[in-house]
Specification:
Helix content is 25%, strand content 12%. The protein has 18 helices and 19 strands. The strands form six sheets. The protein has a five-stranded parallel β-sheet. The two termini are 49 Å apart. The chain is of the alpha/beta class. Helix 2 (60-71) packs parallel to helix 17 (627-647) and helix 4 crosses helix 5 (141-159).
């Protein structure tokens, strides 16, 4: 058993001769920035690492998967493009826990998430050291990385597992077995600063990401090429004739492994059907994904600060605005509203309350994290500027060619997302324009310091988060099963609290056949009678709960919440607005479940999803993207894989006979609950429709 360490450095096993390559420059077109052919030397493998569970992505879901796997005594490898664990609450900077009020009041979470909250409380002496009002817990991103590192080290000791952690590492390639249904190995590239260059996290991500996915050493980065393989020997107690030697876990922020493995997935807006009736489009639009955000931290100061106008500021100035609040009558009140919304450190917890709002007033020394819609959100939504490349775009840019994978993102979008965030800070403190609202509600307030440096809350020399906060990923299409001939997906009608029957929009938006199918889909116990008796659509009563999944391995509830893509390209175009109709689905969701089927991709048997890439529609992803969900799905994934290794039963075999009974699935679920991960909310039953006290009234 080894201690958790912040870096695994591999010895060079063979002499490496690599052609020097300068960092790739950012270009203006996708063809230039994602070239179809990038000159690379044939890689020499510098080291081979084995594990039972290979987690690609060290975000919150990946961390939860590692935590539970270590407690189960497993040998775990985990990679991340950054050097922090925790994803959205650390390296992505959104360190404000998104939680539904009732679930939070009952503390009905997976055990690891509860431990995380306890450790936040212990570190600061309170759960909300920022005294923010968007959440009951706002804190410093760099502190959370340290807390999670300690949690993983303790889980390693307690469970007898071993964690092999590879920061600053990206997966470049994977190989399948002869049958094409199992991943045999992964090849990854770990980067470090070239001799004589600045530390990592000095450059913005857009400047190094192409270099990071390239085998060759460059003038900026030195590379170590690693091959990950299954363990040579199995643990005692595991099935002697197990069908696989290891499992690979997709836990990246954008679904890199499912794209690289080329399993069926969906991206962007789903077609409007009876299953996702609030969708604004009749046919799929893969280019409109939710906006991503580069967060940053700023400190309120006694003294006025001075800043130079960023060279790109005028490009983005037409985009910036605040949202109207009737009770905010002055620019001073509005700035306080925005600053304290996600204040992650309060220098004076007893700050006074004044003005027309209930928010405590900011004090010198307070630190705020910024994550604002018409500020540092960046939401491209056309084929010319979309962020997560579609399969067709990946093919066109050569990313399916041998050694061609470059991360599957548009580098230009990253660059512009960084710039819009930096420009937003300047606009906040010194700007006086307002793209949407009356100019009288915006005035300069230079009493704020932009926080940057490797010891700053974001841990970067440039002050932006190490990686953008990602709200939406590629989403797998699960396996075709009974009732899901086209592949399993969790849909809007499975979780939404919306009263589809009472809202006339849906009878107008859907044709008569789809409207009838919608009402039948929502009928619950009355579905059979409605079908047999051919009940008219408007006479079919609707269930008042989420769909109950017999294969649940976790729970989640949060508002279906959107940061839509913008209608025109580029995002910052004067007069640009959000994509019309996306917010039709916005609203509360019922207490819901995470079905095991949503974690299992098609075609590859030893790949499982832990994170935002589960099989869910665009609308479901808008709810199942928050902190407690990520931990719950990671916890359930880990315990499923431990069970699979012990029993020799593949995850898909646990659900392939549903809706018939699956005894081994039931055994797994009992184990998951016994280990402190809830798989259903209390009183979940097909007979219970009384969920009113779970609705916060949004």
């Amino acid at each position: 058993m080894s201690r958790f360490c912040s870096l695994v450095t591999l010895p060079v096993l063979t002499a490496v001769v690599l052609t020097s390559l300068s960092p790739l420059s950012v270009s203006r077109t996708m063809a230039q920035e994602q070239p179809a052919a990038i000159a690379q030397s044939i890689p020499t493998i510098d080291g081979v690492v084995d594990c039972e569970i290979m987690i690609v992505g060290g975000g919150l879901a990946g961390t939860a998967t590692a935590y539970e796997s270590l407690l189960a005594g497993r040998t775990v490898c985990m990679t991340d493009i950054t050097d922090w664990v925790g994803g959205q609450i650390s390296s992505q900077g959104t360190s404000a826990l998104d939680e539904y009020p009732k679930q939070r009041s009952q503390l009905f979470y997976a055990r690891g998430y509860l431990e995380l909250r306890d450790r936040i409380q212990a570190r600061y002496g309170e759960l909300n050291p920022g005294q923010c009002w968007v959440s009951l817990s706002c804190f410093m991103p760099n502190d959370i990385n340290e807390i999670l590192v300690d949690m993983l080290a303790d889980a390693e000791r307690e469970g007898g597992g071993q964690l092999k952690w590879f920061p600053n590492t990206v997966v470049k390639d994977l190989s399948l077995n002869d049958a094409g249904n199992q991943i045999d190995s992964l090849v990854a590239i770990q980067h470090s600063p070239a001799p004589g260059t600045a530390p990592l996290n000095t450059d913005r991500l857009s400047k190094i990401i192409a270099d990071a996915y390239t085998y060759n050493d460059s003038s900026r980065l030195t590379k170590t090429v690693i091959r990950f393989v299954p363990v040579a020997q199995r643990d005692e107690g595991d099935a002697e004739s197990a069908p696989v030697d290891w499992y690979v876990v997709e836990a990246t922020e954008t679904g890199e492994i499912i794209a690289l493995a080329d399993v069926p997935y969906q991206l962007g807006l789903d077609p409007r059907t009876y299953l996702n009736p609030s969708s604004p489009v009749a046919t799929r639009d893969p280019y409109c994904t939710q906006a991503f955000t580069y967060t940053f931290a700023m400190e309120h100061t006694e003294e006025a600060q001075t800043y130079e106008v960023p060279e790109f500021y005028k490009t983005y100035e037409p985009f910036y605005s605040w949202n109207q609040r009737d009770y905010l009558n002055t620019p001073e009140e509005y700035f306080n509203f925005v600053f304290t919304y996600r204040r992650i450190w309060s220098a004076n917890p007893d700050t006074e309350r004044r003005g027309h709002s209930d928010e405590p007033w900011m004090s010198p020394g307070d630190i705020s994290m910024q994550n604002w819609g018409r500020g540092n959100d960046y939401g491209p939504g056309t084929s010319r500027d979309n962020f997560i490349l579609t399969r067709q775009q990946l093919e066109a840019t050569g990313q399916f060619a041998p050694d061609g994978w470059m991360g599957g993102l548009r580098t230009e979008a990253l660059r512009k997302g960084e710039e819009i965030a930096l420009g937003y800070f300047y606009w906040l403190v010194l700007g006086d324009t307002n793209a949407v609202m009356d100019d009288r509600l915006k005035a300069p307030d230079p009493h704020h310091r932009y926080l940057q440096g490797l010891d700053s809350p974001m841990g970067t020399g440039h002050g932006l988060s190490k990686y953008p906060y990602i709200r939406e990923s590629r989403r797998i299409i699960g396996r075709p099963l009974s009732g899901y001939r086209s592949g399993f997906v969790v849909n809007e009608v499975d979780i939404s609290w919306k009263d589809f029957a009472a809202d006339p929009y849906y009878q107008q938006a859907l044709d008569s056949e789809n409207y009838l199918r919608l009402r039948r889909e929502l009928a619950g116990l009355g579905a059979t009678a409605a079908l047999l008796e051919e009940t008219a659509a408007t006479d079919i009563p609707a269930r008042q709960r989420a769909r109950i999944f017999p294969d649940s391995i976790g729970i989640s509830q949060y508002t279906i919440d959107f940061h839509p893509c913008m209608a025109k390209s580029p995002v910052e175009a004067p007069g640009n607005v959000e994509r019309s109709g996306v917010r039709q689905a916005h609203g509360p969701s019922y207490p819901g479940q995470i079905p095991l089927r949503s974690l299992i991709p098609q075609n590859i048997d030893n790949l499982i999803v832990s994170g935002k890439s589960i099989a869910g529609s665009y609308i479901v992803a808008a709810s199942y993207r928050v902190h407690a969900f990520e931990w719950a799905v990671g916890s359930g994934a880990a315990q499923t894989l431990d069970f699979a290794l012990r029993t020799g039963v593949m995850p898909y075999e646990l659900v392939d006979d549903l809706p018939n009974r699956e005894p081994l699935l039931e055994t797994l679920q009992q184990e998951i609950e016994a280990r402190g991960t809830p798989i259903m909310f209390e009183q979940t039953s097909i007979l219970n429709s009384d969920w009113d006290d779970w609705n916060p009234g949004w």
